[in-house]
Amino acid sequence: MTRSRRPLDLPRRRLLQALGLGVGVGPILPLLNATGAEPTFPKRLILIFEPDGAPAKDYNTVVDWKPQGAETDFTLSDIHKPLEAIKNKLVVPWGLKLSAGGAGENHAFGMAGLWTASTLQDPSGTANFDGGNGHRTGWGSGPSIDQVVAKEFGPNKPYQRAADDPSPETLFRTVQLGIECLDPTSLNRMIYAGADQPLHPEVNPKSAFDRLFKGVMPAAPSVTPMTDDSAVKEAAREKSVIDLVAADLKRLRTRIGTEDYSKVDAHLEALSALERRVGATSGGNSSGMLSCAVPKAPTGAGYDSKLKDMSDIAVAALSCDVTRVMSIQWSYAFSHIKHTWIGLGDHHNYSHDGTDRRTELTAIDNWYAKQLLYLLQQLDSVKEGNGTLLDNTLVVLGRELGSTAHRMERAPFIMAGGAAGALKPGRWLSFDGQPHAKLLVSIARLMGLEIDTFGNRDVGSGPLSGIG
Predict the structure, then answer these.
(1) Do the strands 427-430 and 90-94 form a parallel or antiparallel pair, or are they unpaired?
(2) What count of other Cβ atoms lies within 10 Å of the Cβ of residue 20?
(3) Which tens digits make up the pLDDT trace of 164-177?
(4) What are the structural domains, with CATH classification, of the chain?
């Protein structure tokens, strides 16, 4: 290359051509672009559904689960008490009203609108479901926020490559997991690719494990997992090409002006990061399938065991870079799970049996909070550079109702993690009465998307102020 006085502009294809390497090398260099600015570890997103709303005494009760104290010095409500142990990694957006409505009863359109902020449609054709007490519904009318995030790509987003790239960064663009979610109806599905396009979760932990971790053999704790021979050979091939390109970049650095050094140095740093991520160094937990921690194949049979299994699978799927966008559906709207392992019965029936069941319902909420705590602590135990997997992930838990009294206001949402530095945790913020469409816009922005509106219920809402 000849010496140049203008800034060096080296898109991947031109750079490889300049080095005398074929463009066929390009697909294994996801971090090598004109700036080298992508983070070493990818940004991730997990959406979680917890059934029913905050405990209410009766249909006239307005439930207040508001945290007590200042923005950064607060105490969680009774329904979230177990999460005190990881409060410094939380953001609690209190007071949001669900941007949901349409056909059926509140459980049904709350479920359809939870991650879409869109209307639940009337029944049509084969989409004709009981949306509660005989009220008929169709499917939801818009995509869920996770699917919109996953379709985007570029700097500060979970993916740097387009969804149709011939050499994808992950095995799965998105993954949907669930536990006892029942048959496909508007009450039992929360993730949508678009209008009338529900996505069905994998509800069998063993099937999810087999599909997501095919070719990666779990090992004993604290031991690097073994992989099949083809995976080992592929990693070795990738490392050899990385070494080749790094050597050529160092040679190129001696043939350009000093004002262009930063560009090449950024490429070299990106290559170094990529090398770590294909398992060239020990202890890595990002996309290298050779250095991620894979759990043992699940064997649990009960609801509580399956839920824990799915949490372990989710953590491994993110740490192994099987996917970067996930959802986990705990049960379904109108949940009739009997919580016998904590000495309690039918969740939904407690809400409407004519008795003040706030004690029992709070105990169930506490149990779910412990399950969220387990997931968050597992994410936080995976080291990534100077932080953790949780620091690079945004976890959002939501429910289809604000309260068991079928109110839509003050819906209990919990945010956790750091979204690779985009979210400042350890706070609670009051957004009383504001539409939760703002939360979905904020999720998109934390994931690197520049949008001001989401869904068809509260169009043009903008994001939540101060959430980032």
Answers:
(1) parallel
(2) 7
(3) 999 999 999 999 99
(4) 8-35+225-281 (no CATH), 38-218+289-446 (3.40.720)
